[in-house]
Structures are given as structure tokens and as C-alpha cells.
Design brief:
The structure is a single chain. This protein is an alpha/beta fold. The chain folds into 2 domains: about 200 residues, Alpha-Beta Complex (2-enoyl-CoA Hydratase, Chain A, domain 1), CATH 3.90.226; about 50 residues, Orthogonal Bundle (Lyase 2-enoyl-coa Hydratase, Chain  A, domain 2). Helix content is about 45%, strand content about 15%.
Length: about 260
């Protein structure tokens, strides 16, 4: 468990499970939670025995974004740019640059930054009762946490503008149909399915999975020639890995591979 009760941390079978834990506030972010979650992802970068990450929320919501009580203009004009630069942007960069699978299990409402953090993860599952809300326009703000980057890439400009300008909730099944998340799951099966997926990926060839993540993320800005060159370079590295040698040996011996993530 982390030193902060705002994030519950457990490591089991190579899966680092991170649970946002301010359920009375729908897991909205305060400074303590920001710091604790970033520390957990920094740990995931640093420790080789962590081979997959599962992010979820406690209680009836995943994350309602920023705790507005901490950013109340009546108490003095806040510098929201400082909040983004100090907390949200580093977190998004840690998630995207981590060459290990990041699974997100959205167990309830995901609003504002909470929705965009879920979309930044590698594979996102959501309970059928979950809702995604780009709540920024309700309070005169601009989408952050990568929302203006990820939304048009995932669902196109028209849908991205409609979601952000109207702040209409999007249900989990529609989010899956549109490609914002991977799958909508029955509420009572969400954590079992997400945990099973995370464990399966944690047992996989971690280096190869990480390089696959890197390549797919690069495709949105690379030309075809650049992407072909990247595939060549990454495949050369993957082909020299112990996991590749084990995978081929297991295939030839018709047995299950025992990947070590090396």
C-alpha cells in the first residue's frame, strides 16, 4: 500500500494495481492524490518486476476529475496552467511512455480529466453503468489531460467537438462502439475481467509488448516510411531478446512459453 491513502497500491503476479481512493469525492484529484499516483507510475517505470498496471477507482465512480474545492476562484484566482503543468501533464507522459501495458477499469462516472486519463491508457474496459463526460464546458474550461489530442484521433473531429462543447454523457457501450474504449463489461464482471487481462499481459513478453505500444503510438505522427523504419528497428531489438528465444523454443516444443520480460 502507498504512503498515501488516496491511492491504494498492491503488487501481485507482476500486476501493479492502483486504486483511486477518495470515494466520498468520486475520486476527484487533490494534490495528495496527484503526487501519490505519479509516484506509483514512476515506480512502474523503475521496477522490472512490475510488468502490467491496472488502474481503477474505489466506490461508485472512477474519477470526477479535479476537486474544484481546491481550485475555487472565490478564494483567489487559481493558476490552472500550473496545475496542468505540475500534475496532469507529467502523469499523462508517464502513462504513455511506460513500455508496459496499462489497463484501466472504469467502474463508474469518469468526468473531465478522469475521462481523459482513462482514454490515455492502453486498454480501457468500463462497466456498462459507467459514463464518460467531458465536463469542462460546464465550468468554462478547455479539455485537458490530453483530451484535445486523444479525442479527435480516436473518434474524429465532429464527435470530439460535440462531446466537449455539449458535455453530454457518453455511455460505456457507445464509447466502445466509437472506439474510445476497448470493451463494455457487465458491472459485476468488470474487475474479474480487467484483472484477468492484466495478469495475462503481465505473463507476456514485456519488452515486445512495450515496443508494440511505442510503435502504435508513433504511427499517428510518423509517415509510412518512418513507421516502416521504426518497425524494422524495433523488430531487430525484439529478435535479440530472451523472450523471443523462449517464445520460439516453446513454439517448437509445443509448450506454453515462460516469458521473463527480458
Amino acid at each position: 500500500m502507498s504512503s498515501s491513502e488516496t491511492i491504494l497500491v498492491s503488487l501481485d503476479g507482476g500486476v501493479l494495481t492502483l486504486t483511486l481512493n477518495r470515494p466520498e469525492k468520486l475520486n476527484s484529484f487533490n494534490e495528495e492524490m496527484h503526487i501519490a499516483l505519479r509516484a506509483a507510475f514512476e515506480r512502474a517505470h523503475a521496477e522490472d518486476d512490475i510488468r502490467a498496471i491496472l488502474l481503477t477507482g474505489a466506490g461508485r465512480g472512477f474519477c470526477a476529475g479535479q476537486d474544484l474545492g481546491d481550485r475555487d476562484p472565490s478564494l483567489g484566482v487559481p493558476d490552472l496552467g500550473h496545475t496542468i503543468e505540475t500534475f496532469y501533464n507529467p502523469l499523462l507522459r508517464l502513462i504513455r511512455s511506460l513500455e508496459k501495458p496499462v489497463i484501466c477499469a472504469v467502474n463508474g462516472v469518469a468526468a473531465g480529466a478522469g475521462a481523459n486519463i482513462a482514454f490515455a491508457c492502453d486498454i480501457t474496459l468500463a462497466a456498462r453503468s459507467a459514463r464518460f463526460i467531458q465536463a469542462f464546458s460546464k465550468i468554462g474550461l478547455v479539455p485537458d489531460s490530453g483530451g484535445t489530442w486523444s479525442l479527435p484521433r480516436l473518434i474524429g473531429e465532429q464527435r470530439a467537438k460535440a462531446l466537449t462543447l455539449t458535455a453530454e454523457p457518453l455511455n460505456a457501450e457507445m464509447a466502445a462502439d466509437w472506439g474510445l474504449i476497448w470493451r463494455a463489461v457487465d458491472d459485476d464482471k468488470l474487475m474479474d475481467e480487467a484483472t484477468g487481462l492484466a495478469r495475462r499481459l503481465a505473463e507476456g513478453p514485456t519488452r515486445g509488448l512495450g515496443m508494440t505500444k511505442r510503435a502504435i503510438q508513433a504511427a499517428s505522427t510518423n509517415s509510412l516510411d518512418e513507421q516502416l523504419d521504426l518497425e524494422r528497428d524495433l523488430q531487430r531489438q525484439a529478435g535479440r531478446s530472451a523472450d523471443y528465444a523462449e517464445g520460439v523454443a516453446a513454439f517448437l516444443a509445443k509448450r506454453k512459453p515462460e516469458f521473463k520480460g527480458k
